[in-house]
Design goal:
Blueprint (H helix, E strand, L loop, with lengths): L1 H26 L6 E11 L6 E11 L4 H11 L16 E7 L2 E6 L9 H16 L6 E6 L2 E2 L39 E11 L6 E11 L4 H14 L16 E7 L2 E6 L2 H4 L5 H15 L7 E6 L2 E2 L11 E2 L8
Parallel strand pairs: 4-5, 10-11
Antiparallel strand pairs: 1-2, 3-4, 5-6, 7-8, 9-10, 11-12, 11-13
Helix pairs in contact: 2-3, 4-6
Length: about 325
């Protein structure tokens, strides 16, 4: 009898212990569900001239914003020692907002600290392309501390689509359009450009934004030639003045590093109205227009292969952008 009672008590004790353990396990916080996703991160190549990709696996916790997670991986930089990240490691992503097929990303001010124009275009391109790889995202707008990221002209970059792997060779929309553009042909893309023309007094240049259509595979030199031809057409604003003779033509365009070289026909000299003011307006109209491009820092202008010389300036070396000549 005592033996049976002992066995019964032992069984009850064991049952009590097992029940207690089960309750303790119920109270242990469960590890949140995680998923692993393979993505592409975009970086610059060794020469900082084009975009390259690196495949990476990122781990997402339940409820975590995948766009923020992939950007954090991008900001950490590449695993390949030959690749570059042009985004400051101090960049923080505050959050994202998805609007249909568009994504708004808010970052801190460290994002906007780039080491030159090519670093800027490739850094922004890497940022945008890393996000537009997702099928549901077609365009990206970057906010810096809640304000729209601005380009060299001081204008907001607006909604940006996928950047070309080689800047200047495919579609780029980095600034908002000023008017409804014409529908492009099947092999063309729309681009917004900022052109500078003279004010009525001939003392400052004034920006005029217009939308143009260009071949989707246009080269950077072809793109520059198209922009200069738009300058030759003159302003659409009747209050502004043309800066290049209508008879002048572009003979050639070349780019070396971040310097653009533009050679004009002899009409640039023979048909020019002359005067120091006119000369200044011509130079800064062209230089400020072309340095709107993220990969152009300087411009050299020649006429029939010789330095531009309209009045008293001999432009025998490249000139940089002059913000003081822009009417605000």
């Amino acid at each position: 009898m005592d033996k049976r009672l002992s066995l019964l008590l032992a069984a009850l004790l064991l049952l009590t212990m097992l029940t207690g353990c089960a309750r303790e396990q119920e109270n242990v916080p469960q590890r949140p569900e995680q998923t692993v996703q393979t993505v592409k991160l975009y970086f610059a190549d060794e020469d900082n001239e084009r975009l390259v990709t690196e495949e990476r696996q990122i781990t997402l916790r339940a409820g975590e914003d995948k766009y923020t997670a992939v950007l954090r991986a991008l900001i950490k930089g590449p695993e390949n020692d030959n690749y570059r990240v042009n985004i400051s490691p101090n960049t923080r992503v505050y959050g994202t907002i998805k609007q249909d097929n568009k994504l708004i990303v808010d970052v801190n001010e460290d994002f906007a600290s780039f080491g030159g124009s090519m670093a800027e275009i490739l850094g922004i391109g890497a940022f945008v392309n890393t996000l537009t790889q997702f099928d549901e995202i077609d365009e990206v707008k970057i906010l810096v501390e809640g304000e729209e990221l601005k380009g060299p002209s001081g204008l907001p970059r607006g909604w940006m689509k996928t950047f070309p792997m080689q800047p200047g060779t495919s579609t780029e929309q980095t600034r908002p359009s000023a008017s409804a553009p014409a529908k492009p042909g099947p092999s063309e893309v729309k681009r917004n450009v900022t052109l500078y023309f003279a004010n009525p007094e001939g003392t400052k240049v004034v920006p005029e934004t217009r939308t143009i259509s260009v071949p989707s595979n246009i080269s950077i030199t072809g793109y520059i030639k198209t922009i200069v031809n738009e300058l030759i057409k003159g302003p659409r604003n009747s209050e502004l003045r043309r800066t290049i003779p209508a008879e002048a033509t572009v003979r050639s365009v070349s780019v070396k590093g971040t310097t653009a070289y533009v050679d004009f026909s002899s009409e640039m000299h023979s048909k020019h109205t002359g005067g120091a003011a006119g000369e200044s307006m011509t130079i800064y109209s062209i230089v400020n227009t072309l340095t709107e491009l993220d990969n152009i820092d300087q411009v050299q202008i020649t006429v029939e292969g010789k330095p531009l010389s309209i009045e008293h300036v001999v432009m025998d070396k490249p000139w940089s952008r002059n913000e003081n000549m822009i009417q605000r």
